[in-house]
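Q: Two folds, back to back.
A: First:
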Amino acid sequence: MSDFDDDEFDDDDIDDDLGNRVVGASARAVLTYVAKAIVEDPDAVVVEAEERGRSLTLRLHAAPDDLGRLIGRRGRVAQSIRALVRAAGARDGVDASVDIVD
């Protein structure tokens, strides 16, 4: 007899259904993490998600004093944040974009 007993493992214990995963979870987590690391008031950072098919729009809210930090000179920080979030979304198979709103 083998080292394990077939009765020990039930097929019901294996969850092959991935339908309950959050769309763009990686992109949202990356955006939240990066934004909170940049701003002075991380408690004011709020990320809202709107999904339409395979695209995901993330709206980033922060304290008014921190908007300049998130945008950066000539929008370079914002461009970098968008590139990171787009790459994280691609791992999940979604087209993620970021809007920085006040």
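A: Second:
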Amino acid sequence: MSAFVYILRCRDDRYYYGSTSDLVQRLAEHQTGHVRSTKPRLPVQLVYFEACQTLGQARQKEHALKNGRTRRKVIDQMIRSFPPERLAPFACP
């Protein structure tokens, strides 16, 4: 697994969808205000991520989440059913 698609919940309760090859570093960039899209919506919280074989696959999944093919209730269900223990290593101190 060399890439991830992820969902963040922002302070305004909206979601941010992204993809990256380094999830830990990308989350740090979001949390420290180095990402223009999320900087005014801090703090952000990781609520879902999925490992992909390639960055291209992760970007395709990100695009599917963003463009409306994936309905909001499906996204909410993905987040609700995501095991919280998988998010624990990424929790803010």
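Q: And?
A: The chain has four helices and three strands.
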